[in-house]
Amino acid sequence: IAKKNYTVSEEERLISYSEFFPKASLNLSYGISDTVYRFDLKDLLDSSSVRVGVSISFPVFTGFSRSLNIIQKSYSKKSAYLNFLKMKESLKVEIENFDERIKLSKNFLESSKKLFESSQKNFEKAKILLQNGELSTTDYISIEKSYMESILNYLNSKKEYYKTYYRYLYLIRRIK
């Protein structure tokens, strides 16, 4: 986007130079007199008229608005270019730091997977203990709650890992 903004500002600056050129316009009109009620070709041609006009205008003095417009467009171009460079550097820094971010999200994914697996085993044991009457319903609900939380935690860590990975691939493709 920053690159396109820079390109647009460059084109706007070039267009602003056109304010110094003369402007020409061409007018062409064709008319038929309203006194003709018959559609006779001869009468139609006799009572019709064609007008052609050309006008050329060149503003002599506009209070320096044209020059100021060019200066403003030049500054806009420079600003867009600096924005583009800033965005490019920001993306480079983000890509350089992605290795760490991917490692962190992968470690988080692995730890949440281990937590999920152990929580799943505890939940299966709790089911058996509840059926045998060796576990209270309150304890069972607490174990079930931690099991459900571990599922959510695992799914969120998966989502974050893939989101980080695909952001990395996207940025690598965009930076080139």
Automatic annotation (TrEMBL):
Q: Which domain of life is it from?
A: Bacteria
Which Gene Ontology terms of cellular component type are present? Answer: cell outer membrane; efflux pump complex
Coiled-coil ranges from the UniProt annotation: none
Annotated GO molecular function terms are: efflux transmembrane transporter activity; porin activity
The record's subcellular locations are:
Cell outer membrane
Can the keyword Membrane be found in this entry's annotation?
A: yes
Q: What are the protein's UniProt keywords?
A: Cell outer membrane, Membrane, Transmembrane, Transmembrane beta strand
Coarse class of the primary localization is membrane
Q: Which Gene3D superfamilies match?
A: Outer membrane efflux proteins (OEP) (1.20.1600.10)
Matches recorded under InterPro entries: TolC-like (IPR051906)
* PANTHER family, A to Z: OUTER MEMBRANE PROTEIN TOLC
| Record protein name field | TolC family protein
The taxonomy runs: Bacteria, Bacteria division WOR-3
